[in-house]
Amino acid sequence: MIMHVITNFTASAGAETMLARLLRTSEDERIIVVSLIGVSDRNRNLANNPRVTYVALGSNSVTGLSSAIPRLAALIRRERPKAILCWMYHAMVAGTLGAVVSRQDMPVFWNVRQSLDDPASLSRSSRMAIAFAKKLSGRAAGIIYNSSRARELHQAYGFSDRNSVVIPNGFDLPQVNPPEPKAARRFGIAARFHPQKDHETFFRAAALVAQTHPEATFAAGGHGLSRNNPAVSELITKAGLSPESIDLMGEVADMPGFYQGIDVLVLSSRTEGFPNVIAEAMSFCKPVVTTDVGDAAAVIGDTGIAVPPRDPAALALAMCRILELSPEAYARLAMSARQRIESHYALPAIAQSYTDFVDGY
């Protein structure tokens, strides 16, 4: 029996989605997922596995985290999992200390979902957890990174390199028709409103694109991306982007519909590990323009364009290059994006890599 410990299984970001996908494909007779904060119906439904037991510890602060450790230790003593897999920094700390307090002899693996391209963009709590995790990293039986860039930067920071592996995210492949020749017009960004995602650069790049290509339109989906968020409205105004040219969609429940409604996905992040949204969009035959953070450039290969982060002019130029493709060239690029995900990131092979790494310890 595997015990997964995750910081917050109510969130709908990359780590939570990847864990839910692994749970859905797991054939283990019993699995336990312990969330330091809570568990959402969205993630239960995405996992869709009746053999999974969920435990929410309700820890919403650093103080709560310290009180969660003895409760986690008691759970470990009672359940005696054959291995513990910790997702994200706070869970790595809690899971490792919980195993120590439990005095049970089982391997504790870490799953690092974040790169360190720009630590200043992370929250103070995350930076503290990273520093603490560095001190504990030698206790991990193994560390899984979801990008080569993440492994490189964490080991340079001081994380143990005793037993580590890169396992990229895996994806279900939707049924899609081959893309028809068309001119690209609509650019979409899908990311929560957070400094790490750098929407300011996206808005400024969009404003530059609109000056030379007035036919272009833009969509922004993600928590906080709505008209009633004054911080978003201020960034759009400062960027010089016409509010009429961008559709602020807020939290998007229907991500397949979002991907199908755009022509090109844009990612403007300052730091990432393996950005799920890129591969998801590519699986729907959508080319990607991204900043060169984490393994984003490695994921898109030659099916999209990567530019330096925090450079609106470079991002705008890349977007214009896609706009100026012929309909036939756009269709070829869109199809090559889909084929790259089929070849390198299909979920069954990725799930097997997790099993092999944990079982091979």
Describe the structure.
By secondary structure, this protein is α/β, with parallel strands linked by helices. The chain has helices spanning 14-25, 41-47, 62-79, 89-102, 124-136, 148-157, 199-212, 230-239, 255-260, 276-283, 296-300, 312-323, 327-344, 347-359; strands at residues 2-6, 31-35, 52-56, 83-87, 108-112, 142-145, 164-166, 186-190, 217-221, 246-250, 264-267, 288-291, 305-307. The protein is 44% helix and 16% strand. It has a seven-stranded parallel sheet, with helices on both faces. Helix 1 (14-25) packs parallel to helix 2 (41-47), helix 4 (89-102) crosses helix 5 and helix 7 (199-212) packs across helix 8. It is globular. The two termini are 15 Å apart. The mean pLDDT is 94.
Blueprint of the fold:
Layout: E1 2-6, H1 14-25, E2 31-35, H2 41-47, E3 52-56, H3 62-79, E4 83-87, H4 89-102, E5 108-112, H5 124-136, E6 142-145, H6 148-157, E7 164-166, E8 186-190, H7 199-212, E9 217-221, H8 230-239, E10 246-250, H9 255-260, E11 264-267, H10 276-283, E12 288-291, H11 296-300, E13 305-307, H12 312-323, H13 327-344, H14 347-359
Parallel strand pairs: 1-2, 1-4, 2-3, 4-5, 5-6, 6-7, 8-9, 8-11, 9-10, 11-12, 12-13
Helix pairs in contact: 1-2, 3-4, 4-5, 7-8, 7-12
- SSE order, one letter for each helix or strand: EHEHEHEHEHEHEEHEHEHEHEHEHHH
Helix share bin: 40-55%
Number of strands: 13
Query: What are the segments in which pLDDT stays under 50 over at least 5 consecutive residues?
Result: none
What share of the residues does DSSP label as strand, in percent?
A: 15-25%
Structural class: alpha/beta
Cα radius of gyration in angstroms: 21 Å
Q: Mind summarizing the main beta sheet?
A: 7 strands, parallel
Strand order, main sheet: write it out.
3-2-1-4-5-6-7
Overall shape: globular
What average pLDDT do the residues reach?
Answer: 94
Distance between the termini: 15 Å
Total number of helices? 14
